[in-house]
Hints:
Mean pLDDT: 86
Shape: elongated
Low-confidence stretches: none
Helix content: 55-70%
Number of helices: 4
Radius of gyration: 23 Å
CATH architecture of the domain at 1-48: Orthogonal Bundle
Strand content: under 5%
Order of helices and strands: HHHH
Number of strands: 0
Amino acid sequence: MSAIRTQVYLTVEQRQRVDALAQARGVTMAEIVRRALDAYLDEVRANPRPALAATFGADPAAVAPSRDEWDRG
């Protein structure tokens, strides 16, 4: 596996929980972080609905064009 070294800051509690999980599963802390990141990215990519719902009506000043403009032929 090719990887790029990346530095992140964790809270003390996050680090303790990640270390405990890594030890329980017999993998490295880096592997736990990679798996968690993959799961998060898959979830975000797979479901656009929350993003669309959050932006619905984002421009309350927007005005729809007159229907007359659409029917002009």
